[in-house]
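debug: dumping io for the single-chain case to check the tokenizer round-trip. Nothing else runs in this session.
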Amino acid sequence: MIRDLHIAKQTQDIGFYAGFVGASYMFGRAFSSTVWGIVADRHGRKPVIVLTLVAIIIFNTLFGLSLNYWMALITRCLLGVMCGYLGPIKAYATEVCRKEYNHLALAVVSSSRGIGLIIGPAIGGYLAQPADKYPSIFSQTSIFGRFPYFLPCLCISILAVVALIACIWFPETLHKHNEDTVDKSVEAVEESLADTDTEENGNGGCLQLFKNWPLMSAITLYCIFSLQDVAYAEVFSLWAVSDRSYGGLSFTSTDVGNVLAASGLFLFLYQMLVYPFLAKSVDHITLVRAVAILTIPLLASYPFFPALSGFVLMLVVNFASFMKNTFSVTTITVFNILMNEAVTQDVRAAANGIAVTLMSISKAVAPAVAGIIFSWAQRRQTASFLPGDHLVFFMLNVFTVTGLVFTFRPFFVRGSAKH
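debug: decoded output
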């Protein structure tokens, strides 16, 4: 899309401009997520989710109709500002089911998000430029010929319409557990006195949440691994479609779509069948450490993929993509669980809003930085130290190692607030 908007003067500059389009959405979301969380705590989860879906329908459609680079940048930013559902959805997931199923509920949230991050680019890969790919169906003079990236955006907007209709049957959960918290027994009073520290961490308003170190340490890790995840997503597509002379794979957008679609299918099976077993068998933070350690050699192997070809290349790329996205979704699910365990229900959406705000800042930085580093790496193919894309994947591993270090004390503190 950046290429066809003719903002980049050289091929190597496409990653630079693409990074800022990706970052604009996250910058917009960073400004508003905490506010949306507070609104959801006061007025309910459902109204915020409905408003967000309406915004997706409007601004995502306009993004597909972008006439120039600046329109694309602004519509993505406005979509981010109006994107208030992520914090309330996480709070909703823990409230709509019994506590023993919280890990499964949050796994479903992370799974749906992870699959969206896979299937979304796959939709783009298959449906972008339809007049060129499917001339027998779409003519060059049609709206899909004049706006070659409108069709995938329209499909996403239609999915948002379906989700909006589904919201009619959503029950509100904001006050779902109020009746359970009224307990005047002596045991309850003694327990409340014993849990003063936990209550202080959970209650006292939005500002009090910043003093809740179990929450803030989980959010810090969430931001680090989210930054690495988004930077990887930005780099993977740019790297896959770049020419082999620049260290890429020379994939078409359809090839990238095939890889991401396959990863999405296996990711769904993993989240539904394998992750619940891991969540019960392995301590959460131990699971994150194991995933981080396995990610390091996986990312380090990517620059060597261009030496392969044919079936072997597709097999290796599909396996690596699935493993990387599996690792990402696993860590995000764990941190969602830890963040929701660290606070009480009355501030849960606000806590998730703060997490989304801080995470959005890191995700806003990630595409821009990744795009800049990727463009720089393509210009240093013959460097003696970390030539070409070796530099890009090395930088991704720097964040992986940083996240691994932050899973240990004194950076990380485990906590649990009363329901």
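debug: round-trip ok. Residues 177-204 have pLDDT under 50 and may be disordered.
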